[in-house]
Predict the 3D structure of the following.
Amino acid sequence: MKRTSVLKKILLSFLILTLVLGVMTFSYFGNFYHATADVSALIQETENIEHNRDYLAFVPEEYDTGIVLYPGAKVESEAYAPLLKELADRGIFAAVVYMPLHFALLDSDAALKVMEEHPEIGSWYIGGHSLGGVAAGMLIEKYPEKFKGIILLASYVTSDLSDKELKALSLIGSNDGVLNVQEYQNNRKNLPADTTEVTIQGGNHAQFASYGFQKKDNEADIGCEQQLQLTADQIMKLVVK
């Protein structure tokens, strides 16, 4: 009887712990940054678009270069639509993938789904915002031959790309209050030799997408639209050189 009672208590404790962990996980991942209200209208009004359960893509009439973007942690993928639209208007096939629980590290291979559906694209770049850049680095380290380069938005790579023949663009905002500067500095050694680092003066962490203000971030001195345009300018310099 005593042994049965102890086993019941252990089982009950395990079930309670599982329930608590489940609630905590749901609370953490269920509370994410939503795209601003204007993004929905942008998506609905755009004709050349691909929108399915795996990704959202803006498609120009003619293109030979594609970019797949990984969203930042707990950021809704649609929040990157304005940047994608800006790139598509400049002739780039631009996509953002949907991540499990809005967390790119849970599916670092997600870009491959987009690439498999578009074999006509000859030059691919992988990009990521914040923690999404870490996940993008994990993918390009595994398949460097599939990509021309990597685009990091307020991010860094923990994977060693220093010996890879890749191009890289690292963009940060001068007013960024979220990026871990120490980790950014420590991981610069992982970037390939052909890396361009640019600071967007007045930009912050959140305005690489359109989801409003992010906790711990600093206020930007420039508008979101301007930061996105400056971001697109730098990306175009990378992919056309």
User: Anything to note?
Assistant: Residues 17-29 have pLDDT under 50 and may be disordered. DSSP finds seven helices and eight strands in the chain. The two ends are 77 Å apart (CA to CA).
